[in-house]
Specification:
Radius of gyration: 13 Å
Shape: globular
Distance between the termini: 40 Å
Helix content: under 10%
Structural class: mainly beta
Strand content: over 45%
Largest sheet: 7 strands, mixed
Order of helices and strands: EEEEEEEEEEE
């Protein structure tokens, strides 16, 4: 069983930055791919970024390429650095874990509780 706790959300103005964190409670963290999804009001949950178990492979949604960076470390944590934020980035952000993962939310077995990101213009 994997428990995920995501944090770091907040309110910023357009052009600002935030860093989201995801802490995983699992002994074999290195075996899991990690991902970030987001869900805006009235919309479906959408893929933002993912990183492989090794950290060597990263994938990003077109809408965040060049602005967001996903990373992970040896402390059972994953991160999402978000720069040049736009009002359309406003959403609840969720971290996710799975042995494989992918761009579809149904591909991920474990989820954090979500953290709100609000970007004002």
């Amino acid at each position: 069983q994997v428990q995920l706790v995501d944090s770091g959300g907040g309110s910023v103005q357009a052009g600002g930055s935030l860093r989201l964190s995801c802490a995983a409670s699992v002994r074999t963290f290195r075996n899991y791919a990690m991902g970030w999804f987001r869900q805006a009001p009235g919309k479906e949950r959408e893929f933002v970024a993912s990183i492989s178990w090794s950290g060597n492979s990263k994938d990003y949604a077109d809408s965040v390429k060049g602005r967001f960076t996903i990373s992970r470390d040896n402390t059972n944590s994953a991160y999402l650095q978000m720069n040049s934020l736009k009002p359309e980035d406003t959403a609840v952000y969720y971290c996710a874990a799975d042995f494989k993962g992918g761009v579809y939310s149904r591909s991920w077995a474990y989820w954090g509780q979500g953290t709100q990101v609000t970007v004002s213009s």
